[in-house]
Amino acid sequence: MVLPRSHALWAGARSFDEYAGEFRTTAASGWGKRRFRTLGLRIGGELVASCKRYERVLRCGERTFAAAGIGAVYTPAELRGRGYATALLGAFLDAERDAGTDLAYLFSDIHPAFYARLGFVALPSRTIALRADLLPGERVTVVALGDGDAAAIRRVFDALDARRPFAFARTPLEWDWQRLRAGSSEHPGQVLRLGVRRGRGLAAYVTGRRVPLADAFVLDEFAFARDEDAGTLAPLLRAAAGDLRTIRGWLPPAVARDPLPRGAVRARTSAIAMLLPLSAAFRAAFRARPLERRAPADPCWSTDHI
Ligand SMILES: CC(C)(COP(=O)(O)OP(=O)(O)OC[C@H]1O[C@@H](n2cnc3c(N)ncnc32)[C@H](O)[C@@H]1OP(=O)(O)O)[C@@H](O)C(=O)NCCC(=O)NCCS
Question: What pLDDT shows up at residue 1?
């Protein structure tokens, strides 16, 4: 079993029991049963390398593409350097090509050269940091959102998502996955969901965690229903930060990034997004829409991280 060994790497703030418990809950969930698998390479009965497979759909304009996400690539320390992880990933990619998957993607925590050797291309992967007290504090009423707001949050997310040139589709199953992730104790801090109401609906929302030890509000994602609601974003973020100095997170994707002040934008040193086109159809779509390092926005939300 990999978990006792990978715990030191990936448990974050969780004890081993919490880490293993969350893994089991995730795997047993409706989302887990349909969209998530663990894969391993065995030699003579011994597990020599493993990884996770996530299934998602990527929308590019009007088209959709089948995407396979790769996470938690792992070889036990004493077996490294013998080509096991490369062999596992090679077999993974061959199987995906045969099954008609359009692209593979991952978020590299190691030097991207390892995955580049398999053909993966690094995508813009940055962070943004904003000083909370420099954000305009317009007078809007910010409210804490609860479980009863889930449908309204989805509607606002969908409204913004539909305007993005490409995005991972978020189906009801993926919303369940997001709910499980929000309940995880992997990251320290208090989970926050704030919104601005318009009539009986929602104009905008923001989710993330308040981390007093880091003096920061760590942003997960936000959305606004219409362009005229984008002005509520700065006061929402300011309210989320409260007395904390900084707001930071992944640089948001296109459309969402526009209303954010410029902030301090830096390249990420971990969770570097990488992609490998597998089908001719996706290769053509990818070529037509190059994702440059200097693009003003990043390709996805941190909530897409696997
Ligand atoms: C990364 C990892 C899976 C590689 O497993 P492996 O079975 O040793 O991989 P392979 O034998 O197929 O390839 C070895 C090559 O990986 C590359 N590699 C290993 N660690 C690397 C790193 N941190 N950055 C870049 N390349 C790395 C090296 O180039 C190495 O080649 P070398 O032995 O000639 O120097 C393994 O080191 C591991 O489990 N690390 C801890 C978990 C981890 O960080 N996983 C990646 C998460 S994105």
Answer: 73
- Domain CATH code at residue 12: 3.40.630.30
Q: Are residues 176 and 284 in the same domain?
A: no
155 lines ligand 1 (CB under 6 A): no
159 with 227, same domain? yes
Pocket test for ligand 1, best of 54, 80, 93 (most atoms within 8 A of CB): 80
* Contact by Cβ (8 Å): 189, 209: yes
How far apart CA 243 and CA 126 sit, in angstroms, is: 25
Q: Which ranges of the chain have pLDDT less than 70?
A: 290-294
Residues pairing with 68 in the sheet: 55, 104
- What are the C-alpha distances in Å from 103 to residues 50, 125, 152, 273? 20, 18, 31, 13
pLDDT for res 293: 64
What pairs with residue 298 in β-bridges?
Answer: 253
Going from the Cα of 9 to the center of ligand 1, the distance in angstroms, rounded, reads: 14
Is the shortest distance between the CB of 84 and ligand 1 below 6 Å?
yes
- What's the total number of domains in the chain? 2
Q: Please give the backbone phi and psi of residue 75, each rounded to the nearest 5 degrees, phi first.
A: -125, 130
Taking CA atoms only, the protein residue closest to ligand 1 atom 23 is: 110
d(CA 148, CA 299): 30
80 Cβ closer than 6 Å to some ligand 1 atom = yes
Predicted confidence at residue 78, as pLDDT, reads 95
Residue 74 CA to ligand 1 center (angstroms) comes to: 8
Q: Are residues 71 and 152 in the same domain?
A: no
pLDDT at 89: 98
Give residue 217's domain range.
127-267
| pLDDT number for residue 39 | 96
Ligand 1 centre to CA of 81 (Å) is 7
pLDDT at 183: 84
Answer yes or no: is the C-beta of 43 below 6 A from any ligand 1 atom: no
Place of tokens 């996770």: 52
Same domain, 64 and 114: yes
